[in-house]
């Protein structure tokens, strides 16, 4: 709820340019009528939530950000938010941070995070663990097949 409220507030403050107090008022009214839940599932809402989580991650670290913003979400939904955070870190060039967050998202059971973690592990030369995560991703419903290992590897 706090993440959604913050996302609505951050978006209305930055996109519309209204004062913070008015932004919070709009967010509170939207929550009263159930709008932020629909809004948060839009691309703009997802980016806002990811931006808030990214700021919390940079300020407080992964464990605190996850506890503070994602602890009340279902594991798969938390995995999705963590996956989006990992993508943002990856795009920003923080591969080590992205790797750690992909791992947490994969541990939450989010199949695309499992596949991305496996790919990262493969790049690091950790083929056994990579194959394990690829297999888990496919078993969890990821639509791509697991890469085959070459004979002798």
Structural class by sheet pairing and helices: mainly alpha
Number of discrete helical segments = 9
Number of separate strands:
0
Measured as a percent range, the helix fraction is over 70%
Pattern of helices and strands: HHHHHHHHH
pLDDT < 50 stretches: 11-15, 34-45, 149-153
Could you please describe the fold and organization of this structure?
With 153 residues, the chain is an all-alpha fold. Helix content is 76%, strand content 0%. Helix 4 packs across helix 6 and helix 6 runs antiparallel to helix 7 (95-107). The protein is elongated and about 50 Å long. It starts with a helix and ends in a 14-residue tail after the last helix.
List keywords for this structure.
153 residues; 9 helices; 76% helix; elongated; disordered C terminus
Give the gist of this structure:
With 153 residues, this protein is mainly α.
Task: Present the secondary structure layout.
Blueprint: H1 2-16, H2 20-32, H3 35-40, H4 43-60, H5 62-70, H6 75-91, H7 95-107, H8 111-123, H9 127-139
Helix pairs in contact: 1-2, 1-4, 4-5, 4-6, 6-7, 7-8, 8-9
């Amino acid at each position: 709820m706090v993440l959604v409220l913050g996302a609505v507030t951050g978006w209305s403050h930055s996109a519309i340019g209204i004062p913070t107090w008015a932004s919070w008022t709009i967010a509170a009214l939207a929550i009263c009528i159930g709008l932020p839940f629909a809004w948060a599932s839009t691309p703009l809402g997802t980016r806002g939530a990811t931006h808030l989580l990214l700021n919390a991650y940079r300020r407080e670290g992964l464990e605190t950000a996850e506890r503070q913003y994602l602890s009340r979400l279902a594991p798969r939904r938390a995995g999705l938010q963590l996956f989006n955070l990992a993508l943002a870190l990856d795009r920003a060039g923080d591969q080590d941070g992205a790797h750690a967050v992909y791992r947490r998202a994969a541990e939450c059971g989010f199949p695309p995070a499992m596949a991305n973690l496996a790919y990262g592990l493969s790049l690091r030369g950790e083929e056994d663990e990579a194959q394990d995560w690829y297999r888990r991703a496919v078993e969890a419903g990821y639509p791509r097949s697991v890469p085959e290992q070459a004979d002798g590897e």
